[in-house]
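Hey, sorry to bother you again with one of my protein questions. A protein chain has come my way and I'm curious about its shape. I'm sending you its amino acid sequence along with the backbone structure tokens. I owe you a coffee for this, so here goes:
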Amino acid sequence: MSNTGFSIMIILPRLLASLGVTIRLTVISLVFAVLLGMLFCLFSISRNKLLHFFSSLYLDIIRGTPLLVQAFFIYFGIPQLIQTFAPSFRMSPDTAGIITLSLNAGAYLSEIFRSGILAVDKGQMEAARSLGLPKSRAMIKIIIPQAIRIVTPSLVNQFIITLKDTSILSVIGIRELTKTGNLIIATTFESFKTWLAVAVMYLVIIKILSVVSQHIERRLRSGTSSR
């Protein structure tokens, strides 16, 4: 009994530290993903055929390839290409992981934002234009804020998906929660307790985010119905 308690007390600080890495990677990646998603969303609804083409190409590549392949390509493939011109170039696993998650989540956020913008009543844009607002300013001031309000629950859901996707980045050496679990098992051979602890940590964080998402959704519904 004491051995079980002792083992858990040893591995818990390492797992908590790696959980912090997981959350940090998720937050940083989603900041960039939101920017990418909004940019390519605007590209996709643009009348400019070239911008629309770039948006479609980006979405097709990301949605048509597994996240694991994207991680390998960015961590191993891109540096090898750059090293032909700059032999001293190196990319850290954390940087590769953030780029991978940002590009991946950005593609899905682009579609989320696009659906939000399309859900806004077209009369909003017409009313703004009739008041003399340029289309770009009307989009920024009126349409996008309403679209973000509509898709907020989906944004939280994407946060949950990206958080879980960080486990895949263990293959490129990032010491997030899953990688740390593997390292602990390699030295302690405590598979059951280690994976149980890892699973509980993921479950707790994801449950908290799910509750937050449900709370936001209820607030948005009540705010809409009170109008």
